[in-house]
């Protein structure tokens, strides 16, 4: 299928910056940011364990993220009914 919305992935950037995991460089007039992957993945996993919707965007009109929220809610109902 087609990829979903990526707008919510930006939510991790301030946390990565605060944890000093991002490095910056300039390439002519463009600022680049980069990080080691393992600490980023570890932080993302921890964030998702605390809130499965963390990386979904905040746009109520976003079909991808709205669909993901519905699926997450259905999964929660199934888990809680066991």
Description of the molecule:
The chain has 82 residues and is of the alpha+beta class. It starts with 12 loop residues before the first helix and ends with a helix. Strands 1-2 form a two-stranded antiparallel sheet. 46% of the residues lie in helices and 12% in strands.
Helix content: 40-55%
How many extended strands? 2
Radius of gyration: 16 Å
Number of helices: 3
Query: How confident is the prediction overall: mean pLDDT?
Result: 90
Low-confidence stretches at least 5 residues in length (pLDDT < 50)?
Answer: none
Query: How would you classify the helix and strand content by structural class?
Result: alpha+beta
Assembly annotation: single chain
- The end-to-end span amounts to 30 Å
DSSP strand content: 5-15%
> Going across the major beta sheet, what is the strand order?
1-2
> What is the 3D shape?
elongated
Offer a few descriptive terms.
alpha+beta; two-stranded antiparallel ribbon; 82 residues; single chain
Please sum up the structure shown:
The protein is α+β, with helices and mostly antiparallel strands and 82 residues long. The protein is 46% helix and 12% strand.
Topology:
Elements lengths: L12 H6 L4 E5 L2 E5 L2 H14 L12 H18 L2
Antiparallel strand pairs: 1-2
